[in-house]
Amino acid sequence: MAKPKVFATHPLFGAARQILQEGCDVEYWAKPERPPREEVLRRVKDKEGLICLLTEKINDELLRAAPKLRVAANVAVGFDNIDVAACTKRGVVATNTPGVLDETTADFAWTLLMAVARRLGEGEALARSGNWKGWDLDQLVGTDVWGKTLGIVGFGRIGRAVARRASGFQMKVIYTDAVHARVELERDLQVEFREMNALLAESDFISAHVPLLPETRRLFDAPKFHRMKPTAFLINTSRGPVVDEAALVAALESGKIAGAGLDVYENEPFIHPGLKRANVVLAPHIASASLETRTKMACMAAENVVALFQGQRPANMLNPEVLKR
Ligand code: DGY
User: Least enclosed by CB within 10 Å: which of 4, 13, 198, 310?
Assistant: First the structure.
């Protein structure tokens, strides 16, 4: 019997390719740059499976171009690139990769936090420039991390992993979320719940860990920046549109907040020029980018596809109702 045809918009990693090779006939996009939209639309025409990255929009246009499609597997936990309702309407299973990237992403939120607090970006540039004249008492003085208050906005798996790391820095950790965590969990992690406005006013560092939803779009806007301490820093490893970038630039320019550490942007790969300032540490959406984690993400997407074609339920379905029919 012919194997189901799959298009992967990336060569993936060897371990993921191995999972796929048995049961699927996979066409891989092998060029270093992301595939142009027309190319994706052309290649999905005869495919039953699609493995995609968050840079591909899985919407009505794509689904129309892929009449045989049965599964679209995102190699990412965030799935704001997928119109899940449109997939459901056409009976296409959509999947993501939750759980495997929490710790790696939490590590990176801390990387940004430490880097911006201790002015690592500026220090690194100076050390490489050839202009460093030697030690000086007030050279690149930053702000302490230890002993400060960390505010976590969005207390899911990644927010909790960020919280766990704070105890080594003797920090007070507060969080806000649509739902309160269980009392035992709050006790174990030594965290306290705050309403958003209280968290904004109290935190020295605020780290965003919410998914991109209509209600979280531009969650951090001008009024929120007004509520923050002028010495506070915003860290964002979630999704760019969670922050109103123009308002953030204005807050940084006027000294409403002290700085930011950013991994994600409103219109990637465009970065607002106003963010390219000394008190902002910028990264190109790499919070989950360890080889171990990215390999696990690719394998998870591959397993989701293989499971569906073997007549099983993929482990990470975003629209399980498709298979209940
Ligand atoms: C995701 O998985 O949603 C990240 O943004 C990439 O790891």
Answer: 310
The rounded Å distance from CA 69 to ligand 1 centre is 23
Question: How many A from CA of 136 to the centre of ligand 1?
Answer: 40
Give 229-286 pLDDT, tens digit per residue. 999 999 999 999 999 999 999 999 999 999 999 999 999 999 999 999 999 999 999 9
Q: Of the candidates 93, 95, 5, which has an alpha carbon nearest to the alpha carbon of residue 325? A: 93
Q: Do domains 5-100+291-324 and 102-282 have the same CATH topology?
A: yes
Instruction: Tell me the CATH number for domain 5-100+291-324.
Output: 3.40.50.720
Parse the chain into domains and list their residue ranges: 5-100+291-324, 102-282
Given a contact cutoff of 8 angstroms between Cβ atoms, the answer to whether 209 and 236 are in contact is no
Tokens at 305, concatenated: 């596809």
| Cβ–Cβ under 8 Å, residues 76 and 32 | no
Residue among 110, 10, 7 nearest 54 (CA): 10
pTM of the model: 0.97
Name the token pair of 182: 């269980």
The CB density around residue 165, as the number of other CB atoms within 10 Å, is 17
* Annotation marks residue 285 as catalytic: yes
Indicate the top mutation candidate among 51, 52, 54 to test ligand 1's pocket, ranked by most ligand atoms within 8 A of CB. 54
